[in-house]
Amino acid sequence: MLVTWSTQLLTNETYVEYSLWNGTFSLRENATMSKFIDGSSAHRVLYMYRATLKNLTMDTVYMYHVGSPAGLSAKYSFRTILDENRKSFAVYGDLGVVNAQSLARLQRDAQLDYYDAILHVGDFAYDMDADESRVGDQFMNEIQEIAAYVPYMVAPGNHERAYNFSNYKSRFSMPSNGDGENLWYSYNFGLAHIISFSTEVYFWWEFGFAQIANQYRWLEQDLQWATAPENRTKYPWIITMGHQPMYCSNANQDDCTFYDSRPRSGLPYIHTFGLEKLFYDYGVDLELWAHEHSYER
Ligand SMILES: [Fe+2]
Fold first, then answer.
1. What parts of the chain have a pLDDT lower than 50?
2. Domain boundary among 80, 113, 128
3. Ligand 1: centre distance to CA 64 (Å)
4. How far is the CA of 81 from the centre of ligand 1 (A)?
5. 103 CA to centre of ligand 1 in angstroms
6. For residue 176, how far is its CA from the centre of ligand 1 (angstroms)?
7. Pick from 55, 57, 47: nearest CA to 4
8. Could you give the CA distance from residue 63 to residue 54 in angstroms, rounded to a whole number?
9. Integer Cα distance of 248 and 261 in angstroms
10. Does 7 share its domain with 103?
């Protein structure tokens, strides 16, 4: 289990202390620190800490807190995954600091252990970089009452694009088997192979064309792995999540209202790196999208 947190002042000797629920915080894992500098002219600094708790037993409740000799957080808990295939997810996108209508329900359900993981398919806070990234701080404090209990898995949306997605890249900790900065990655969970990717590479070219091809090639390789017979037998469901959908029936002239939407057909006019054919060829079972603020399936 990987725990991520941040402070505004640098703390030394920073760690997670943990144990079984009825234990005494007898285990400790030291954290690594990275510095986040907000992209605005204020250059506000946050210190991001990460620690991975190892040798955990399946289907077991642990308690933990984070901090340093200067002070500790509240006590939180998580349950490690069950040694069985049934898994329960909450899936959503587009959750802001203001008008977060699902927040209380999600916090309550997460604390009641209803979910094995949360999948947040892009667009956070509106926007994390606002007010010198203080809106990002506020958002992370709100979802802490979810994410401190349950793995919180993310994909980038258009609202994360400021300063080349720096808040998004710095505040979350996703598997490192993709680009290494949370933009694309995959993992196995129960019977599913879950792939998170960035639809935003098709829209914000100022951050480089190369990442369109890099992501596409990685997706192809990852799908080759997932569809190898021995892996597909173990993880028969292939699930993708990306923010801006290939299709939608909204009448708002967004990209998905056009036949040749970018994630579907790839780059305009030349139609390269489109994902519809790729996902179809490799038998992706379920694609999760967000962005349109409407429910369609
Ligand atoms: Fe969006």
1. none
2. 80
3. 34
4. 31
5. 18
6. 24
7. 47
8. 14
9. 10
10. no
Give the ranges where the chain is alpha helix by DSSP (H).
103-111, 130-147, 162-171, 210-227, 229-234, 262-265, 275-281
User: How high is the pLDDT of residue 111?
Assistant: 94
For residue 93, how far is its CA from the centre of ligand 1 (angstroms)? 8
Which of 155, 143, 164 has its CA nearest to residue 36? Answer: 164
pLDDT tens digits, 5-47: 999 999 999 999 999 999 999 999 999 999 999 999 999 999 9
Rounded to the nearest angstrom, the distance between the alpha carbon of 166 and the centre of ligand 1 is 17
Domain boundary residue, one of 54, 80, 106: 80
Instruction: Give yes or no: residues 69 and 157 share one domain.
Output: no
Residues 149 and 230 in one domain: yes
CA of 8 relative to ligand 1 center, distance in Å: 29
Whether residues 4 and 116 share a domain: the answer is no
For residue 297, tell me if it sits in a domain. Answer: no
Pairing of strands 45-52, 2-7: antiparallel
Structural domain range at position 31: 1-80
* Number of domains observed in the structure of the chain: 2
